[in-house]
Task: inverse folding
């Protein structure tokens, strides 16, 4: 399945963070979502063949990378208090049906 | 824009009761529709999907039918168990003009509590 690391993270405002994801075997696209407490996930962006292939309403300080083995990183610069959330990675073989990892819970103080 | 609306929760039921969680959507084109389930402290698990009108998705006793005429995708289960207690999310795929971006639009989630 999809794995993510770390499981929990605490940062302070203004810092930078990198979250990691390993896609399910055979999946060639990866998407990232932000889920605030008590809300549905919000789409950040998707990567396909190492290129960004769609982006939600998130500022440029949210960026990503996809590696040749289809693993991925989400980087967030200049952290703000509102960035505190559960970050979910999802991989897909057809570009549409998303299979989610367990998430990384980020707390920004 | 495209959107998903779910019934407010929490929904509290006794074990073996019938479950319905309402989901309606607004979309241009013909999106695929999904139900995901999230257990406490975990990520989302795909429960079922339907890709075109009148399709019925089913899994683990849960069912939902893609109703284009009423723009609905209600989740049903004939007999719930305590282990079904979780948050349920309805979602639709949101393709752009040049193909699928993999973007899912989620509802706000409905919490289900099943009591023994």
Result:
């Amino acid at each position: 399945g999809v794995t993510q690391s770390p499981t929990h993270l605490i940062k302070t405002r203004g810092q930078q963070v990198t979250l990691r994801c390993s896609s399910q075997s055979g999946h060639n696209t990866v998407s990232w979502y932000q889920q605030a407490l008590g809300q549905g996930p919000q789409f950040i962006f998707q990567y396909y063949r190492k290129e960004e292939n769609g982006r939600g309403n998130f500022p440029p300080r949210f960026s990503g990378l996809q590696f040749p083995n289809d693993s991925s990183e989400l980087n967030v610069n200049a952290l703000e208090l509102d960035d505190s959330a559960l970050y979910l990675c999802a991989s897909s073989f057809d570009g549409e049906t998303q299979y989610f990892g367990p998430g990384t819970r980020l707390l920004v103080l | 824009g495209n959107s998903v609306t779910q019934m407010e929760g929490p929904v509290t039921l006794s074990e073996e009761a019938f479950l319905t969680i309402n989901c309606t959507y607004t979309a241009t084109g013909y999106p695929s529709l999904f139900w995901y389930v999230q257990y406490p402290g975990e990520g989302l698990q795909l429960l079922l999907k339907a890709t075109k009108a009148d399709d019925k998705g089913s899994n683990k006793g849960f069912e939902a039918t893609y109703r284009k005429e009423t723009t609905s995708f209600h989740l049903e289960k004939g007999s719930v168990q305590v282990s079904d207690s979780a948050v349920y999310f309805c979602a639709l795929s949101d393709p752009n003009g040049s193909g699928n971006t993999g973007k899912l639009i989620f509802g706000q989630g409905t919490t289900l509590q099943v009591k023994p």
Notes: The two ends of chain A are 31 Å apart (CA to CA). The first strand of chain A starts at residue 3 and ends at 5. The mean pLDDT of chain A is 93. Chain A is about 0% helix and 50% strand.
